Amino acid sequence: MAKQHVLSKCFDAELAYALAKLSHAGLDVVTPKVLRALQTLDWEAAARQAVQELERYFKDFRWEKPVGTWDVCWSDGDDAGIELDYSSSNDPETAFEDGCFDNRCVIDFSTAFKKIWPAKNLSGPEHWAMELGSEVETFKSVFLTLAEDALLRAIETKAFKRIDVRSPFYLQSALWHDGERLAFFCSGKAIRRPLRKPFVPPKAKPTKPRTLQILGREYSPSSDKQIVFHYERALKSLPDDVGELGNLEEIVICDCGLKALPASIARLGKVQNVDLTHNRFEQFPESLCGLQGLRTLSLGRNGLKSVPDAIGRLKKLQVLDLDQNQLEILPEAIGGLGMLKALSCGDRMKSLPASIGGLRRLEELLVRGPLAGLPPGFSGLERLKRLKLYGALMAEFPREILRLKNLEELELGDTPVAELPPALAKLPRLKRVRASPNRFSVGYRAKLRRLFGDRLFVGYDTDPSSFLPGAT
User: Fold this and answer.
1) φ, ψ for residue 365 (rounded to 5)?
2) Residue 194 within any structural domain of the chain
3) Cβ partners under 8 Å of residue 346, min gap 6
4) Enclosing H/E stretch for 409
5) Is residue 205 situated within a structural domain?
6) Looking at the 3D structure of the chain, how many domains does it have?
7) Structure confidence by residue, pLDDT tens digits, 392-428
8) Helices 32-39 and 13-23 sit at what angle, rounded to 10 degrees?
9) 147: which of 23, 156, 203, 347 is 20 to 30 A away, CA to CA?
10) What is the CATH number of the domain that holds 241?
11) H or E segment at 144?
12) Does 210 reside within a domain?
């Protein structure tokens, strides 16, 4: 009689958490949402399907060398499946230094995901964050653990035993190709079992209600939804345990003395609005990138010099204000903010990332700094309504703007473009063009006014401040 799979026999939410915790370190928090999601799945069917898919794979397997190490990890090409890689080396630490063979998705979990979220298009890890937030790593680890145990079962089948393997051979796993690989089986061990120990989740200890104090004000983890401070220069930091205020929805700390944020901020999964305008940040507080529900982020009037790639994790972000900082560039990860509607950045911007054209929902863009031009994909901003470029070094009008069919307002302040093309006046929704100061002569201004009518403002002909040096 076939041995019953450990997950199909007794899998429940607590065991799922235990397996994930033991297989991959650092997972010490699990929420009721994750537990409920795990309890909805038929784990017996999922485990049986995983073993069958591995067995089919081994039946067709052909390779001229003996295999020394097998590796399971999430597939790069299919975010709903697990791939199985292999190497002739049986040294797990170096087996994949020169790359992996095959890189093929072997275990398909898409059916399981559809049963957990039947009404949502959450096909895999890239989409789970919308539902699970910071718990996505726990959820991925549970399914990777299922794949590990399925592989342990599959190597006992006839299909696997026909494959030429080294002695000993190893099984190992990692969340991703570039993640830490952990060996969980060695054929040379006297006892063949996963390299983990039994685990019993500790019983929760009753805790007394507590409050946090910020500048003498008390905040309750169970009830408070806002932190609001204005003009409090004495406020230079937040408590390290501010992450316990799990019901917070808004953080507004403006014109204060903040220089950094505690890492626990990332645990505030309900926060939707953060306004930290006019503080003393010189480094972007990366803990904010863990706020998966964030919709509005304002960090204007600080001293930021760079923005981390982790900004791309804020998939629900709609408004991002980085104006009046010391930024010269933005990371390519900005292009992954598919929900973004408004973006402002400055004051030293030299270029925009090529990925900015991927912001299909962007309606407002403000950029300050010596831009030399716009990236080729800029015309992909098909919903852009308001564009403001201040201090750019563009002598020629950017032709990419002429493809923005929904553009309503354009400002080119302190920008030395030689002329405004007639095609600009033909944009169907254009309502307002402001280009002041500029290098336009009085005669050319008159020509533009006839072309654009009352939609145009290029300054006052009698006001020297409305002309840039070099105007004729």
Assistant:
1) -140, 125
2) no
3) 322, 323, 324, 325, 327, 366, 367, 368, 369, 390
4) strand 409-413
5) no
6) 2
7) 999 999 999 999 999 999 999 999 999 999 999 999 9
8) 110
9) 203
10) 3.80.10.10
11) helix 136-154
12) no
